[in-house]
User: What shape does this take?
Amino acid sequence: MPVITTIGQAWAIIVDLYTSTNRPGWRNNLILFLTCFTLGLIFGSLLFVGLYCSLSYDIVVSSSIANVLAMLLIGIFFFFKRVRCFSTLFFISCCMKQGRNLLITAGTSVVIYQNVKNTFNNLQGLARSMICNLESRKISINFTPLEQYRKLLQWVADNLKGFGDILGIKFESNLIVNASVSDGNLKEKLIEAEHKLNATAQAMAEVLNTVSSISQKVLPALGVILVLISTVIFLRRYNYDKKYENTFITQRFVLFDEKQRASGKPHVLPLTKKERKRYITIPSAGITAKEGRVMGIFIIPIITHVSTWAFFIGVDSLLYYLILTIGEYLEDIKPIEVPLKMSIAVSLFLNIQTGSSRTEEDFSYSIPLFEKHCIPRPQLLIYNSVGPLAIIVIILIVLGVLSAKLMQLKVLALSLFYPDNEEERIEHLHAKILQKRCKKVKVLQKSVMELAKKVTSDMHVCYMYVLVNVAYTERLCSLMPRSTGSLLCCILCHSSY
Assistant: This one.
């Protein structure tokens, strides 16, 4: 416990020095300088990661730019309170919708660069394997079956020469066999298909590279610019518009209301049930219905984008396993065996025994249905994308849970940096609650007076009494925020009296 108390006191001192103007004393200046030094290093490290990982700058260039910026930020943080306030709001804004959008953009770029591009590459490989197999089929048709049949005919012609002359009949065999296949049209079609495939692949690769480059370089820069602009707009509206985001009951508001009560002036605490739904007490750990709606609105884009990522990853995985299964099936298919054997047997000639001779030759061949080197070999890059996406999704879930409280952090931070403006906003909110209550009381008074007219005719004196004492009734309402029913009873009792 003493350690926790010491840490809490040190943290309170650091926050007090960081949110106020420079105070005299070398110890205070040293603590403030160390705090600014730490924050400058944090922003410099984040810039280095963005330049080196996202924009793919050289490590020397990235580290040089990050170091220069860190040194500048340390000096600016130390001398200017407004810059410290702006940097705090910028960091909180990065954790809100702008930070969510940046993370969603980063996740989308990862899916496009890894899974979508891999899906296209697998489809391209499947198309190339089909063209490769057709080219192989053309070659095998030209050389395997026709060549075997040509050899068969040539073998038959060579064996016919051995018969010689029979009964004065001269038998001559001069057979020349040539084989040719007219495949010019098929060859042209294959070349055209390959050219179209290469052109389509190149066009898709350029599109994917452009989208990936925009997602990795342009969109993060635009996101940071939007965060800066939104932070400036929020800071300006908060300082100059007392109605903007002025629905939070802070500890200073409680102290102001207690001071009003002690001095005999109208007070607003405790709030009514409807007012507690409208005005949120901060800091608070519970989540109200309004904060739940804010969290739901914050999480809906996360759910839709994560579902889209899962869809593309699933398509990539299913296509990979489909092509892999087809490739394994094609490898197991055995080639078609075509038996082709020829034999010549000579035993009798005009019933004269001339001896027996038998000549055999095997011209069998096999035709593979799919060439081994043409089988598609898909790739699966899911492991390269799941890791970064898991980190992004975890951060998005944490931001979704904290989204209802991040606005409270911004309001609390501004109340620390600008206490005078916070006092003006508290007075405005206090007067606003009182004004709304008085309007309700006037409506209630009108209803009661109309009811008094209808109930009995001997209440005219009481009606005039209530009408004259409107100012007193409004003051009583402000002092008794929960006594609406008591006020009604009071009026009815005066009327009956």
User: Anything to note?
Assistant: The mean pLDDT is 76. The first helix runs from residue 2 to 18. DSSP finds 15 helices and six strands in the chain.
